[in-house]
Design a protein that fits this description.
By secondary structure, the chain is mostly beta strands. Helix content is 4%, strand content 59%. It has a 12-stranded antiparallel beta barrel. A 4-stranded antiparallel β-sheet has the order 1-4-3-2, with no helix packed on it. A hairpin with a 5-residue loop joins strand 8 and strand 9. It is globular and about 50 Å long.
């Protein structure tokens, strides 16, 4: 049930025309963590908006805020296509092989500033035998403009995946910190995310990374509104590898992995349906296995949020 709050402002409010408040859904935060794992562009669900209406009076303006009842849950369903499967700087399926994927998550906000998100993601290769299932749980707490996250991601590969046998799987823990800033209508979000492999490892038949392998991503996301329904979202990211990726010669390494940049252009067709095409570029200098020094790819996603 909606509630009305009447606020009386003095003459300083005469310059005020409209105000828009935004509430980011918890599911968007959980999806961001999973997207960062793939170094993909982040296109969170469209935020809810609250409009402020301005009335007139004697020497002041009366502002009537129509505020929706707080929503403590959200559901997000996404699907998309990528021309290449770029995972932490590595062209995982090789040139000419894209990826179709489908994902969904449910988020609840049981306390002030906190959210718990659980979701699944399925990807299948195009023109190559490849399937991948992810299950993830994310816990995020907001402290003012800061978001601190902790989560778990489970990766399951029913095909061989080149690691010695079928049913390869992997568990990771991650920690993330993001800062949400606004400059006028532009939103800027720097973030850092650290992923730690907790097994199984390549020393076991059903694992595929070294013991203690980890990966660090520094990312900067920007949202620039263009119209009421279109925005530009440029991003850039720098990955640091700790024995997670390997070179063409089979050597694992520690150090800078790759640098990426890209542009997503989400179009909010309705309050619950968004389509987001994107284009991206990656530069790597470590002779990453199966990956060109310069790689371009593109894709499109569709998001249904409730």
């Amino acid at each position: 049930m909606s509630k009305n709050i009447a606020v009386i402002l003095t003459g300083f409010a005469l310059a005020l025309a409209t105000v828009e408040a935004q509430v980011e859904t918890g599911s968007a935060r959980g999806q961001q963590a999973l997207d960062r794992a793939r170094s993909a562009p982040i296109s969170p669900a469209a935020p809810e908006t609250v409009d402020v209406l301005v009335g007139s009076g004697k020497g002041f303006k009366e502002i009537l805020i129509l505020e929706e009842e707080d929503k403590w849950w959200s559901i997000n369903v996404d699907t998309g296509w990528d021309s290449l499967y770029m995972f932490r700087g590595v062209n995982l399926l090789g040139n000419g092989h894209g990826l179709y994927w489908l994902g969904g998550d449910v988020s609840v906000s049981p306390w002030e500033g906190g959210s718990i998100t659980a979701g699944v993601w399925w990807g299948t290769g195009l023109g190559v035998t490849y399937d991948e299932l992810n299950v993830f749980v994310d816990l995020t707490q907001s402290f003012g403009n800061f978001d601190a996250s902790f989560g778990w991601v489970y990766y399951y590969y029913p095909n061989d995946f080149g690691a010695g046998g079928p049913d390869i799987h992997q568990n990771e823990l991650y920690w993330a910190l993001a800062y949400n800033a606004e400059i006028g209508a532009i939103s800027i979000t720097p973030s850092v995310t650290y992923y730690l492999n907790v097994g199984p490892t390549s020393q076991q038949r059903d694992g595929w990374t070294k013991p203690g392998a980890s990966y660090l991503i520094f990312q900067l996301d920007t949202e620039i509104p263009v119209t009421d329904f279109l925005s530009f979202e440029p991003f850039t990211a720098f990955g640091v590898n700790f024995d997670f990726n390997e070179r063409d010669n089979g050597d694992y390494f520690k150090g800078g992995n790759n640098w990426e940049l890209g542009l997503a252009m989400p179009v909010a067709l309705t309050s619950w349906f968004t389509v987001s095409p994107y284009v991206a570029y990656s530069y790597q200098w470590q002779d990453l296995v199966g990956t060109d020094t310069n790689t371009w790819w593109a894709g499109v996603s569709a998001s249904f949020s409730f």
